[in-house]
Automatic annotation (TrEMBL):
<keyword id="KW-0255">Endonuclease</keyword>
<comment type="similarity">
    <text>Belongs to the endonuclease V family.</text>
</comment>
<keyword id="KW-0378">Hydrolase</keyword>
<dbReference type="GO" id="GO:0016891">
    <property type="term" value="F:RNA endonuclease activity producing 5'-phosphomonoesters, hydrolytic mechanism"/>
</dbReference>
<dbReference type="GO" id="GO:0000287">
    <property type="term" value="F:magnesium ion binding"/>
</dbReference>
<keyword id="KW-0479">Metal-binding</keyword>
<feature type="binding site">
    <location>
        <position position="110"/>
    </location>
    <ligand>
        <name>Mg(2+)</name>
    </ligand>
</feature>
<dbReference type="Pfam" id="PF04493">
    <property type="entry name" value="Endonuclease_5"/>
</dbReference>
<comment type="function">
    <text>DNA repair enzyme involved in the repair of deaminated bases. Selectively cleaves double-stranded DNA at the second phosphodiester bond 3' to a deoxyinosine leaving behind the intact lesion on the nicked DNA.</text>
</comment>
<protein>
    <recommendedName>
        <fullName>Endonuclease V</fullName>
        <ecNumber>3.1.21.7</ecNumber>
    </recommendedName>
</protein>
<dbReference type="GO" id="GO:0003727">
    <property type="term" value="F:single-stranded RNA binding"/>
</dbReference>
<keyword id="KW-0540">Nuclease</keyword>
<feature type="site" description="Interaction with target DNA">
    <location>
        <position position="80"/>
    </location>
</feature>
<dbReference type="InterPro" id="IPR007581">
    <property type="entry name" value="Endonuclease-V"/>
</dbReference>
<keyword id="KW-0963">Cytoplasm</keyword>
<feature type="binding site">
    <location>
        <position position="42"/>
    </location>
    <ligand>
        <name>Mg(2+)</name>
    </ligand>
</feature>
<dbReference type="GO" id="GO:0005737">
    <property type="term" value="C:cytoplasm"/>
</dbReference>
DNA sequence: GCGACAG
DNA sequence: ATCTTGTCGC
């Protein structure tokens, strides 16, 4: 974890920490063509007990070939509260990242970045903490207004709040619900959309995140108590 | 006050 | 998010 920053004890402290950390988010970083290794991150929770599995899947950015998969079992240390999602998922995701032999060039996470009430969603928190370029790709909006984008893959429309552009509502496949792309850290919104499209060749959800979701679910399922007799 | 509310 | 199989459609 980030030893420089005290971990918040409650929602009020967490909110204050977000407002402070948001200032370190940047919109520039490596050019898109310099990104060779993409990582998708996701967390699956057990309903039976209080365990969770965080997963990171690393893919070759050009071929989308899987290069590495790591998982980490943990327990939630913070409740789920809209707007404070990162305090729940950041600790297990960082622990999983530490299991990688080589850090990836870019992180894609299941949630928002700047498209957040205080402009500091999970993707921003993950990027600022790791100092790795990060993109947020969410399945649902948390804040903002938008027009329905066109029906085809690549069609998009801006996600805005009080005139401020927070992200892009991006159609990743024909006639499928769009996803919500926003900057996490060290990348432009345009590059974030390009990387998202490039890593989403077939399904609605980008391949790195989709595979991380599968890995975390598979792992949790395989570790559930198997009833005998 | 009411509704909305990433995963 | 979690529980949960098949089934309809491209």
């Amino acid at each position: 974890m980030n030893p420089q920053e005290p971990w918040p004890a409650d929602a009020e402290e967490a909110t204050a920490l977000q407002s402070r950390l948001r200032r370190s988010v940047t919109r520039t970083g490596p050019a898109a063509h310099e990104i060779q290794r993409l990582a998708g991150l996701d967390v699956t929770y057990s309903k039976n007990d209080d365990r969770l599995i965080a997963a990171v899947v690393v893919l070759d950015a050009a071929t989308l070939e899987v290069q590495d998969v790591v998982v980490h079992e943990d327990r939630p240390r913070f409740p789920y509260l809209p707007g404070l999602f990162s305090f729940r998922e950041l600790p297990p995701l960082l622990a999983a990242l530490e299991k990688l032999d080589h850090l990836p060039d870019l992180l894609m996470c299941d949630g928002h970045g700047l498209a957040h009430p205080r402009r500091f969603g999970l993707a921003c928190h993950l990027g600022v903490t790791t100092r790795i370029p990060t993109i947020g790709v969410a399945k649902q909006a948390l804040i903002g207004e938008y027009a329905e984008p066109g029906p085809r893959r690549g069609d998009r429309s801006p996600l805005t709040d009080k005139g401020e552009v927070l992200g892009t509502v991006l159609r990743t496949a024909d006639h499928v619900k769009p996803v919500f792309v926003s900057i996490g850290h060290m990348i432009s919104l345009e590059d974030a959309c390009q990387v998202t499209l490039n890593s989403t060749p077939r399904y609605r959800i980008s391949e790195p995140i989709r595979l991380a979701d599968q890995a975390s679910r598979r792992t949790l399922k395989s570790r559930q108590s198997h009833p005998t007799g």
